[in-house]
Structure formats: structure tokens, C-alpha cells
Amino acid sequence: MDDLEVLATGPLTTVQDRGRPGFAALGVGRSGAADRHSHALANRLLGNHEGAAALEVTLGGLSLRARGETWLAVTGANLDVLVDNGSGKHPIGMNAPFRLLSGDVVTLGMARAGLRAYVAVRGGLDVPQTLGSRSTDTMSGLGPACLAVGDLVDVGPRPGDLPDIDVAAVAMPAADDVELRILRGPRDNWVNDADALVHTRWQASDRSDRVGMRLSDNGSGLSHRESGRQLPSEGIVRGAIQVPPSGEPVIFLADHPVTGGYPVVAVVVDEDVDLAAQIRPGQHIHLRWSR
Fold first, then answer.
1. Which of 127, 136, 156, 106 is nearest to 29 (CA)?
2. What is the CATH number of the domain that holds 235?
3. Is residue 191 part of a domain?
């Protein structure tokens, strides 16, 4: 069986598929790829099932050695992909399939724009499943451990023929301000001015991860109508915007908890949650009511 040897991981590299839906009643979140569109595209380029397990690389810095001939594709964050076949490093285009021979090394540079890149391998990653998924959930600890130097990652059986495509024409993540569409409620009346969400130029905090992205306006944020009022815990969905007592909104992402005790004043339109997953700390965000 072919496998990939991990030579470097960058800040964080995890295995992700579509996640493990259907276990919220047991307190288990879905998890899965933070940017579902980029994850699915990487698999489609190789003829894999869209939900096949792939690597999610935060900011870049991953380096892998092929132990057997295989095909890969890299999507998501805008970064350099370099292949060293023993005669020096050669650039490889993103959003396109490419072949590695046994012993070749592929390295991802640091992202120029966007936050998460996806590395899919033809046949998918053959790691153990937990509750029907190979995803690493950084909040619950379910799934495989984050990649470490020296790990060997098995590759699954190859599917049929490679798709007849050279490159996918997709836009790279934005490096400047990002606009996200949001839906109002259900607890927008718990803050004094829910419209401040769309009238403020927010900034993504460095206190952000796969669980959620904290927004800052270098001010007071959103204030609760009744500071001492308590809200019983209730269900949380991907894209929910929760406002804790600090007033700094949090947009929940892939590894979000299944319940929360602070008011959810809006929810990001599902299609735009993938855009949110590519926002880097320090990047500015504009929220817009969808209707």
C-alpha cells in the first residue's frame, strides 16, 4: 500500500472529510473540512468521492515524501506548491492534479492569501474512522491526531480514471476585506443594537481557530440589553454568530460546540461559511443582512 511520509507539518495539519453528522444529541459536533468547497474540489480533481479524507493545512508549511507513485491536488489558500524530484524544487500549479513518483517531496509554502489549504491524494487518506468519519475534531479530540513529523499516512485504493482536466478555474481567497451575508436572529433582541453587526468594520482576531472566529472592532463590540440576564443553553449551528459578555461576536466554524449559553444574534449564510474559513487573523470583515 502506498503512503505519505510527513516531513514538516506547518502550524497545524489535520485530516478532514465531510465530518460526522447526526450525533449532536450525544454532544458530538459534525467537524469536517472548514472550507467544504475547497476540500470537495481537491477530491473531484483526482476522481475521488467528494467526501474522501484529505489534509487541511493551516497557513502552509506542510512537506510530504511519496512512498510509491501517487497523484495529488492542492486547493484553498493561495500558496506555492513545490515538488523536489532530486534535481531541485519545481513549482506546481494549484487547483490541478499532479503526479509524485516514489521519493518525490512536495512542499507547501506559507499562504499569501487565505488561511487553509487542502491536499487531496488519489484514493483518499486511509486512516481509522471514528463514528463514521476520519475527521480530526480539535474541540472534542475525536478522530486522528494532528499530523506530526515522521507520521506515515496510508493512501486508499485508487478510483477509476483520472478526470480529463488540467486546472480548475476558481478564484483565490481574498487578501483584503471580505463580505459575509448573514441572517438575523434568533436572539437579536438580546443586544442593544443588532444592526451594529452590519455597520461595523470588523477584524478577525488572532484568538480564532477551527472552533470559531472572534471578531473585534477595537471598541466595545455589541452590548447586551440586560447584562445579568441568563440564557439556557441551546443548540448551535455552523455559522452561528454568538455574542458573549465581552461584546466581541464569535462566528462558529467546523469544530463548534453543539450547544451554547450566549445569545446567537445572527447566522452566516451557509454558502459564505466557507469564505469565513479562509479569513486570516487581522483581515477585515463586513457583514451584510441577506434579507
1. 136
2. 2.40.100.10
3. yes
- Please report whether residue 172 resides in a domain: no
Same domain, 189 and 135: no
Listed in sequence order, the DSSP H helices in 30-178 are 36-45
Residue 63 lies in a domain: yes
**pLDDT at residue 227 tops 90:** no
Range of the domain at 122: 3-154
- At 269, the amino acid letter reads V
Q: Rounded distance, CA 179 to CA 86, Å?
A: 44
pTM given for the model? 0.96
Give the side-chain half-sphere CA count within 13 A for 281. Answer: 10
Q: What is the pLDDT of residues 19-33, one digit of tens each?
A: 999 999 999 999 999
The CA distances from residue 122 to 78, 148, 151, 233, in Å, are 21, 21, 19, 42
Closest CA to 32 of 278, 260, 259, 253: 253
CA distance 234 to 65: 45
